[in-house]
Amino acid sequence: MADVWAATSTEQGNRMKGVGSINMAAHPLWAGMAAPWQEKKENYIYHLKGEDLKSYYRILASQPNYQASYAVTVDLPDHYFYASFFEEGAIFTFSVALHDDEKKKILRKFTSVFGLTFRRFLDLKKAETQAREANIEASLERVRSRTMAMRDSQDIGNTIVTMFDELMKLGVKMDRYEILIGDESHFMETWTAATNAQGLATLRKGKLDMSSHPLLTGAYHAWKSKEKSYTYTLGDDVSDYYKVVNDANYYPVRFDLTHLPGKQFHAAFFFSDGALFAFTPEPLSEDAVKICKRFAGVFALAYRRFLDLQKAEAQSREALIETALERVRSRAMAMHNSADLSSAVSTVFTELRKLGIDPLRCGIGLLSKENRKSTLYASTSTHEIDNLSLIGWVMLENHPVFNNQYEHWMRGEDYFPVLQNEVLKDYYAQLSANFKVPELHSFEEQYGYFMMFTNGFLFCWSQHPYSEADTRILKRFSSVIDLTYKRYFDLQKAETQARDATIESALEKVRGRAMAMHSSNDLSSTASLVFTELRKLGISPMRCGVGVFENESRQAQLYAAASTSQGDSLALVGGVLLSGNPVMEKVYDAWTHGEDYYPELQGEELKSYYQMMLTGFAVSGPDSETGEKQYGHFIPYSIGTLFAWSDRHYDESEIKILKRFGTIIDLTFRRYMELQKTEAGAREAVKQAALDRVRADIASMRTTKDLDRITPLIWNELTVLGIPFVRCGVFIMDETQQLIHTFLSTPDGKAIGAFHLPYHTAGFTGAVNNWQQKKMYITQWGEKDFISLADTLVEQGAIAEREQYLSTLPKEVIHLHFLPFLQGMLYVGNTKGLGGDEIHLLQAVADAFSTAYARYEDFNLLESAKKTGGKNPA
What we know:
flat; alpha+beta
């Protein structure tokens, strides 16, 4: 058998592919490959024709493990199979004609590269197997670590959550799961765990009669028989099973019998004290079964640890109170930044529940003497959800209970209201106006406990009054919360100062770089520093950059920021018209009014925007199928906008940072434009100086011998002007004699010497014709053209032998540029074609040369006239 990957396309451009395994003995084409491959030959050729061709595709289509989209009913011409071997296999092609040697060489190169690729694939495959085992062992170790980190019996919930999280990460997908703990009776205790909004795991326990359904009975007997695992398929009896579970008196979960799957697969994996129970949509794979068995063994350790802790807890109730308080104190003192507040404060409620104080609702209210607004951080417990975190605010006014909360806090006195009936209903109605709370199903009596501290109060609501001991515990916890918030406000102040200092430092770095710009080429490194510093400040958009706008044309040049291993860069990626799309038009309008713009795009709007962008430059668009939403941030500055696209809307502080960096972008681009203007002036000065030197030197020539100075002069000035070239010269056209007076340079800029070519000389007629039409002429010369020129130079006596000239030429084709002027053509040769700006500069040199050369000709005519007594020498 051989693994095959194949691809082709139809004349209509439809792509077809084949993937799978093929029996190598099924057809002579495949069978014949074995020997040359084993003998390590380079290739193998097979001619498919006639019935053999049809037979091949019938056999290919009948291969059970090979799926191909080739149509066997289509008549195919006879064609050739060509295989190029590498160590593990071959790259093959089908073609109507045999490949020529050049194509075979190309295929050989590709085969060599693919051979390396395939060996890399095999290495990766081996590594993936090792990595899979490492991942499994790492997951098991995390469960072991979580087990050993258990401080009390309630932490078993964290261990269960960790265990099943790790199973999910390893690809073991489950509809639901639980732990069963057994004893000698036919009842088994059930454990389920879930993580609440504060990241804490809660454990829910129940009991099931293991004789109430065949699934449970079978699992119980398998556990008693010390089997490793047990499976059961819920098919026609799926509703019977869940009805039994719903009817169980001590089972904490109820299932909706109207939304049950048609089939569900159960697997139990046993340890000495119970079982890991899993319900899955498909049967577990062999790999998943092995993994679950290993996890069941690890959980046995967790359960023994749980039993040890449970025993210890029964002896240490009083000690736990102080320990719980100390945990909160430690968490508060361990706060490194204000973001740790939530986890630190949530520890209070975790510890309260561990101590058996389990209120209906509890949390923290923060207050200020400036107004009656209270910011609430609440932890709520209902029949359906435990420890639901809610955040909001309420004004402590317009209700007796709210008024008393604020007044008692001002006096530093604790407050214990008891609410019922309409008072309770009105209280919750006002509370829910700005703060989401669970819906009350009854308005029976509720007991409130408000324990005051410096910055607010700890509150708890319960359906039953707390004992004095519990109230004292609440008071002690409020003191620890006071410590926590003092620590929080200190950290918040320090962070604000540090953050401001960091932002200012980042801005100063960019300002310094902008003012240190010496040329316009420094723009990329300077502007890219903006995005480097933004990322350091935690603002990392999916796409960002700078737009430079033209007011009248509505054209925008876009500079995109890119990040690589070498650092950040900012490069011009293209232009776009700020019209024809609602977003583009709003970007322009916002800029003209000096306003920020924050679009939120999704679906067709997002797709339309990216289609518009794609017309101007290359940018990767979103996947429209995912429902992705993108948030734009356009911050205007004097000549454009700073833009950033993110998967979320930036908050107020982040937008302030973007605005501050927008002013730096403004400074940078204004500095850039000033430098561009200065550089343009400098370039113009260099150009004029060079042209003046050309005019002066040519005008100073008095004899034909002085003409030898032409090519060194042109060479030097082209070098000064920064024009790339390898050869240069001047052709003076003599219309009377139909001759080209030619002045060429050596590689080091020296004159080869003047020589004279008839107009009809091969290779020069194009230059002559274009000169006569006053047109620029660009062509390319290869080796044959230069050999012909070298022979002419030898005939003219300009050089001794042609190798003397040819040995100095580059091996590449040379691009020849002929710029016309009144008396002839300026010639410049380079290994690459020159750009528009360079051509324009050359034409200016040619025109300056023309003016000066005309003065030289006038001088010569005058001198000739003197010698002939005033007569025209012609």
